[in-house]
């Protein structure tokens, strides 16, 4: 039997199952004998700890606890408040943070964001340029309805004569 | 642990009433399980003066969370899980000790202790030797990683079965067996290394 075999049988040894083969090896191998003694020492220590006198609840422990729970149920504490709403609060905060990050990350224009104020201003300028008349050649006019045979009024121009 | 059908039905009724917010219904549950919780807390934290306070906190946590108990595992198991986690929240700030009475003993005394401890230690060892041995294993548990300590306490000190430990720790039984094997192996290795560190310190 090899030393590794002893280590592999640790659980059996721990449960007190020692074969003749193991005992034979332990008489011949100082390292494994030391290992085995340590195992027995630790087991004995656990045995003593298990048999220690238990810590008993003090008299009236359960009654005092129930009274405390009753008082806590009537007057919710700050801790209770956060326990109830804490999770919702955290989820709400996470959702808002996500939306804020999304708002910062998205491009300023486009199908999601739509037109920005700058876009509208540019459009307005372009619209005004489209209708401007520096040379007086065109003008926005309302063309009133003409009576039959009536000629349209001449266009107002700024032609220099 | 066997409960009669009537006891089980009674416990279910208490739980359901507690889930409706009745502290009075929680009282019988506390009385039924308080000794188990006290024992588990003591074995995990090893501080007699802290046990009752921690047990109280555990039961308060259990009452607040009782609506989440879905009867999939036993109530005792569910409560043990809360107790284990709560104790570890408490222990996280504790530092592992590097000192043990064992290393203050002479080499001959250590050998005598080891020889005597192999038979029934509570009958063969005197009070001082029992104190030393309990201190040694307590310190080994202190030094162990959190998961090792949990599983060793539940198995070696609380006598839970592998299946019960699996429920408490939310693991498969095969995983519990593997972790238990590794925890035992690491503890023995730690003892071996600790012995090396303390060679020459013995009287």
Topology, element by element:
The complex is a heterodimer of chains A (161) and B (203).
Chain A: H1 3-8, H2 10-14, H3 20-28, H4 30-50, H5 61-74, H6 78-105, H7 117-131
Chain B: H1 5-19, H2 23-45, H3 48-65, H4 75-91, H5 107-118, H6 121-124, H7 127-143, H8 146-157, H9 162-169, H10 173-197
Helix pairs in contact in B: 1-2, 2-3, 2-4, 3-4, 4-9, 8-10, 9-10
Characterise this structure.
The complex is a heterodimer of chains A (161) and B (203). Chain A has helices at residues 3-8, 10-14, 20-28, 30-50, 61-74, 78-105, 117-131. The termini of chain A are far apart. Helix content of chain A is 61%, strand content 0%. Chain A has 161 residues and is an all-alpha fold. Chain B has 203 residues and is an all-alpha fold. In chain B, helix 2 crosses helix 3 (48-65) and helix 4 packs across helix 9 (162-169). At the A-B interface, helix 2, helix 4 and helix 5 of A face helix 2, helix 3, helix 5, helix 7 and helix 8 of B.
Total helical segments of chain B: 10
Point out poorly predicted stretches of chain B: none
The oligomeric state is heterodimer
Taken in chain order, the helices and strands of chain B follow as: HHHHHHHHHH
Tell the overall outline of chain B.
elongated
Strand content of chain B: under 5%
Largest β-sheet summary of chain B: none
Offer a few descriptive terms.
heterodimer, A: mainly alpha, 61% helix, elongated, B: 203 residues, 10 helices
Question: Gist?
Answer:
The complex is a heterodimer of chains A (161) and B (203). Chain A has 161 residues and is an all-alpha fold. Helix content of chain A is 61%, strand content 0%.
């Amino acid at each position: 039997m090899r030393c590794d075999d002893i280590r592999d049988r640790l659980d059996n040894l721990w449960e007190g199952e020692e074969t003749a083969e193991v005992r034979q090896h332990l008489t011949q191998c100082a390292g494994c004998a030391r290992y085995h003694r340590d195992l027995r020492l630790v087991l004995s220590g656990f045995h003593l700890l298990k048999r220690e006198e238990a810590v008993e609840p003090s008299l009236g422990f359960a009654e005092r606890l129930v009274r405390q729970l009753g008082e806590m149920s009537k007057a919710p504490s700050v801790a209770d408040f956060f326990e109830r709403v804490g999770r919702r609060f955290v989820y709400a905060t996470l959702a808002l943070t996500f939306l804020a990050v999304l708002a910062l990350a998205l491009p300023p224009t486009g199908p999601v964001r739509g037109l920005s104020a700058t876009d509208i201003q540019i459009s307005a300028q372009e619209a005004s340029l489209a209708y401007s008349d520096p040379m007086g050649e065109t003008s926005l006019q309302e063309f009133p309805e003409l009576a039959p045979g009536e000629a349209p009024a001449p266009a107002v121009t700024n032609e220099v004569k | 642990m066997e409960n009669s059908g009537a006891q089980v039905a009674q416990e279910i009724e208490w739980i359901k009433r507690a889930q409706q917010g009745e502290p009075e219904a929680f009282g019988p549950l506390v009385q039924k399980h308080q000794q188990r919780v006290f024992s588990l807390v003591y074995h995990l934290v090893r501080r007699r003066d802290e046990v009752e306070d921690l047990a109280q906190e555990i039961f308060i946590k259990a009452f607040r969370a009782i609506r989440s108990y879905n009867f999939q595992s036993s109530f005792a198991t569910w409560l043990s899980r809360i107790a284990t986690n709560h104790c570890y929240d408490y222990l996280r700030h504790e530092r592992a000790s590097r000192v043990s009475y064992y290393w203050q003993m002479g080499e001959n005394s250590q050998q005598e202790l080891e020889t005597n401890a192999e038979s029934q230690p509570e009958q063969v060892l005197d009070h001082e030797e029992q104190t030393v041995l309990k201190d040694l294993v307590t310190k080994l548990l202190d030094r162990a990683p959190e998961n090792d300590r949990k599983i060793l306490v539940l198995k070696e000190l609380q006598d839970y079965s592998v299946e019960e430990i699996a429920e408490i720790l939310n693991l498969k039984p095969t995983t519990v067996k593997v972790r238990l094997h590794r925890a035992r192996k690491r503890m023995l290795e730690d003892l071996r290394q600790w012995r090396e560190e303390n060679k020459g310190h013995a009287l």
